[in-house]
Amino acid sequence: MRFIAHTITPGISAGLRQRFPGGSRTILPFVLTALLLLANPALAGNDVSPQQIRELKEQIAEIDDWLKDAEEERSDLEQTLVQTEQQISRATRERRELRQQITEQRTRLSELTNQQAELTATLNRQRDSLRQQIRAAWMAGDTPAIKVLLNEVDPENVSRTMTYYEYLSQDTVQRLEAFQTSLRALQETRQQVSATQLRLSKLEQDVAQRQQTLESSKAERERTLTALRSDIRGRQNQRETLEADRVRLEKLLQEVEAAIANIPTPNESQPFRSLRSKLPWPSQGSVARNYGESLAQGRLQQNGILLTTNNDAEVKAVHYGRVVFANWLRGFGLLTIVDHGDGFMSLYGHSSSLLTSPGDWVTAGQTIAIAGQTGGTDRPSVYFEIRHNGAPQNPNRWLARR
User: Fold this and answer.
1) Chain mean pLDDT for the chain
2) Range of the domain at 292
3) Record keywords: Cell membrane included (predicted)?
4) What's the predicted TM-score (pTM) here?
5) E strand spans, 227-354
């Protein structure tokens, strides 16, 4: 709820002092309502001066409570973020250690691979040697030693020949045993190589997954903390705005009361209260939003009707009266307020041009403005309200059927 300075000076303060040097103060309740409550329709119908200030203070207090809770939540999030960063630090250190282990395991794997190659070469040599020895034995026949014994006459030659064959047999056995040993060593080395490769792969997966989990956790907490900080800044700005509104409101009340202290009541032969269901419509167009409809997700209610019309459509006064406000007001754009006496007022908002000034007398059906899109509407519109002693009235009960 922001008030622009020229809504009260000179449009009200100077203009009203010049036009109305004397009279009663019967217009004060509505002007306060028009200037103050229209900027925040949720306050419509309340006691203007103290009630709005109290509500502003309550809003400020609510924001203060929210900020206190949010600061505690932010502190918790920041502490959690610190813990996460410490965990990431430890994980990074563990990852370095694991990488060192991986390097060592890869070195071991390289050694095992070389050993496997050497064992394979040794095994191949042993296989070739055995193959040659077996072939030579086969070529000599199945029982070369018996043949030699039968053919030898000299005992010394027999003894020497048997010793030779004994050595040859032992060498064959040793070669076979060495071959089997090499074969077992090769199989074990292959198993170690496979196990080492599997262990390296799992280590790398574990390290990568742990790091990714921690990084994701950190990113999520940072997003939450960023959103909370942004929300806190927004609430702080809202609080500052409300505090400024409260100060501006108190000053505005003093200035408006001083400016309209002696405004006369309009004198019309046919009182406004007798025209229920007889007032002319303020402009051509269809009703886009009706009285009492929910606004702001149900927190507020529509205090008037919104007509959609064409550009340059005329906006007309519904009854005789005096213009008490013709200026811009946040949320309503260019706004005209007409006092009809006996506490009745009519309001005409979203105009593109105002054709009257504060203090002008107008008659029923007189064009007082041109329809437009000021005050935040997305198409040409006319906002129309009726108030009695500051309380919003249902315009449908006052306007004639059409």
Assistant:
1) 72
2) 8-27+261-397
3) no
4) 0.42
5) 286-289, 294-295, 300-301, 305-308, 314-316, 321-329, 333-341, 344-354
